[in-house]
From TrEMBL:
Superkingdom of the organism of origin: Bacteria
Record's protein name: histidine kinase
Domain HAMP: 172-225
Pfam families assigned to the protein according to its UniProt record, in alphabetical order: HATPase_c, HisKA
Domain Histidine kinase stretches: 233-452
Chain segments annotated as coiled-coil in the UniProt record: 206-237
Keywords: Coiled coil, Kinase, Membrane, Phosphoprotein, Transferase, Transmembrane, Transmembrane helix, Two-component regulatory system
Highest classification ranks of the organism: Bacteria, Bacillati, Actinomycetota, Actinomycetes, Micrococcales
Entry's Gene Ontology cellular component terms: plasma membrane
Length: 453
């Protein structure tokens, strides 16, 4: 089982590692720079020592050379390879020729546990090239560098500890609102209203997160409320047809064939209504669950419209024999290849539901229904106009809600057709509105958005 590490600890560890790496890099740069300074200083000192012997060689190389100062070591090699002087320490006394072969410059020569700075200075004379080598005990330079290294290690350690402690408290202060939101979220219940996550006064990322989560919480509550209301409405709407179906089936006793046939016919009609309600509820749930509504070209929608109107004419003639149903359509489009944010089958469903709603609202009267489809570069508009008497004012205000039906006794709708239309229009980037003319008729207008290139 993996051990849980808090976000505060991870921030502290990560920031401390970064700080240690930065401090270590800075310490390395400082140490390299300091080493260069020490080397330049040693070169200057040793060059000053060799200058003394350079002058003596240039004046009279045959004279005896004076001994070097305290903690100074000099080796002088004549042009013939003879060592005229060699006061080097024991570890370097036999390595003069090797150092000369490496060239005239400042050398770092290690002898045992000690590193010496050895400076080689060539002196040109008429008799040939003399070499003056100078070094000195490196205790001072080594002590300085050792002290610097110890100081850097101490600073690095203390800096890491201080930064870790500071990061711990800073991360704790920064994450305190998150902890408050977490504790508040533990006590929130989706079904309860009025309780939200705390939003700080600062306009920072945490406040934005709190506002986003509160918006999500409100939408979850609204969705939960809609689901609860739909379940309640569906239960109520299904209970009555089921009770009627149960009563109708109870009338079938086999005693009267004519009465039994009538009861079976009524039961089939009730069952068909139940099927329509269940199918409409399923369609609504699918519309709510799908984010991508698809798209279709205008010419596809025109074909779907004409096919739908032809099918509706045949269906109305079968359902309403003896009634005059004048169903016609007009089309006004600018670009057949323009695409709208709705699939052809969903567009057909919108047309069917709007025309069925107009037919149901007409009752047993003759009715005239006009379907118009217009499309331009800004979008599309589908309107269905009828002379079926219009909506009651209180019904028109809620016509696109679920299970809202007209009050006419002959109205046989399920109350879900316009709800499906409104849901599809919203998914398609448009909306559905009613232009009501009470006592005359109504026009339902549905708009659709154009798919961006």
């Amino acid at each position: 089982m993996r051990r849980r590490i808090s976000l505060r600890a991870r921030i502290t560890i990560g920031s401390t590692i970064v700080a240690v790496l930065l401090l270590a890099g800075a310490s390395a740069v400082v140490y390299m720079h300091l080493t260069g300074i020490v080397a330049d200083k040693e070169r200057a000192i040793l060059h000053g020592i060799t200058e003394v012997y350079r002058g003596a060689i240039e004046e009279d190389p045959g004279e005896r050379f004076p001994p070097p100062g305290v903690k100074q070591h000099v080796a002088i090699v004549a042009p013939d390879g003879t060592e005229r002087m060699n006061t080097f320490p024991a570890g370097l006394v036999d390595r003069v020729s090797d150092v000369i072969e490496e060239g005239p410059r400042l050398h770092h020569v290690r002898s045992g546990d000690t590193t010496f700075f050895v400076y080689v200075d060539p002196v040109e004379t008429a008799g040939g090239t003399w070499y003056v080598l100078a070094t000195r005990d490196t205790d001072i330079a080594e002590d300085v560098l050792s002290d610097v290294v110890r100081l850097m290690v101490l600073v690095l350690t203390v800096g890491a500890l201080v930064f870790a402690v500071g990061s711990w408290f800073v991360a704790g202060a920064a994450l305190r609102p998150v902890e408050q939101m977490r504790r508040s979220a533990e006590t929130l219940v989706v079904a309860r209203r009025g309780e939200l996550l705390p939003v700080g006064d600062a306009h920072d990322d945490l406040a934005d997160l709190a506002r986003t989560l509160n918006d999500l919480l409100e939408r979850m509550r609204a969705a939960n409320e809609r689901e609860r209301q739909m379940v309640s409405d569906a239960s109520h709407e299904l209970r009555n047809p089921l009770a009627v179906l149960h009563a109708q089936l109870g009338l079938i006793d086999g005693a009267d064939a004519t009465a039994d046939a009538a009861a079976v016919h009524d039961a089939r009609t009730t069952l068909a209504r139940l099927t329509r309600i269940a199918d409409s509820l399923l369609r609504l749930s699918r519309i709510d669950a799908v984010d991508d509504v698809g798209s279709a070209a205008v010419r596809e929608l025109v074909g779907a419209l004409t096919d739908s109107v032809d099918a509706l004419r045949l269906r109305s003639a079968e359902r309403m024999p003896g009634r005059a149903v004048d169903l016609d359509f007009t089309i006004d489009i600018r670009d057949e290849e323009m695409r709208l944010r709705i699939r052809a089958d969903d567009f057909t469903r919108v047309v069917d539901n709007l025309v069925d709603n107009a037919l149901s609202a007409s009752g047993r009267r003759d009715v005239r229904i006009a379907v118009a489809f217009e499309a331009d570069c800004e979008g599309a508009r589908l309107s269905v106009t009828d002379d079926a008497g219009g909506f009651d004012p209180e019904v028109a205000a809620h016509a696109f809600e679920r299970f809202v039906r007209g009050r006419a006794p002959a109205y046989a709708g399920s109350g879900l057709g316009l709800a499906i239309v409104a849901a599809l229009a919203s998914k398609a980037g448009g909306r559905a509105v009613i232009e009501n003319r009470q006592g005359v008729g109504a026009t339902v207008v549905v708009t659709f958005a154009v798919v961006a290139d």
